[in-house]
Amino acid sequence: MEILISSLFVQGIAASVHQVKSFLNHTAYLSCYFPNSQKTDIKDLRIFWQKDDEVVHEVYYGQEKHDNLSPKYINRTKMDMDKWTLQLLNAEIVDEGQYKCIIQQTEKGSPRVIHTSECLLNVIANYSQPEIAQLHGGELKPNEYLNLSCSSSGGYPKPKQMTWLISHENKTRRSMHHTDISQDAVTKLYNVTSKLSITVPANTLTNISCLLHLGEQLGSLVSVPLGIGESPFAHSNFCMGRSRAHCSRADHRSQHSQGSE
Where does the Ig-like domain start and stop, copy by copy (predicted)? Predict the structure, then answer.
């Protein structure tokens, strides 16, 4: 879990905003970051977790209380009393947002706020490995156009861009094309597609990959390379496979067959 802290002031009490990441459908851990320097017994405190105007969780003098909880959090939260940490079960995309922990202590019959902190929850869903597909059938011939698509699905947050990597003769160039990004209205997960039109090379093998950029903190995902082109050993032996190794094996078989004749 990665935490970034920035300071603010809430009702005269120093508070902190902690950025917390959780994977989709996993448990999110939202700490109160309460130092408890006075060693106060939890039975002498009231602890509230709120998101906007909704009550997420409440601990009332040592007992978890569910009467005032928002319906969406019922049976989804529990408090680790020893670590002053709220556990939000089965984190969903809609759970993203800012959560506030408020701790009160009763003095002379009146509750007084002695600590506040805030957590900004970000939910992450892993994208599928990008996959390249051919958009038309039929025989491929040198110097004709080949239309390809690359797709990745089921991820969150929104990705930055999809880039094509085209490698031949020990050189690689990047090609930026329009990236179509759509979001599912129910799950809030993103699907990504990019298309490439490329001339089929003659007398050379070309590897094509696509790279999905997820952002600085999440990195990138790359597809399995697609190898296209004619074998340099036999002009009649056109190759299209998942990698240069695939085409090289085809070339080796072709040479072996010719040598046996």
Answer: 30-117, 130-210
Query: Kind of pairing, strands 54-60 and 179-183?
Result: unpaired
- So what's the pLDDT on residue 240? 53
Indicate whether this model's pTM tops 0.85.
no
What rounded mean pLDDT belongs to the chain?
Answer: 82
Taking only the tens place, the pLDDT of each residue in 7-44 is 333 343 445 689 999 999 999 999 999 988 888 888 88
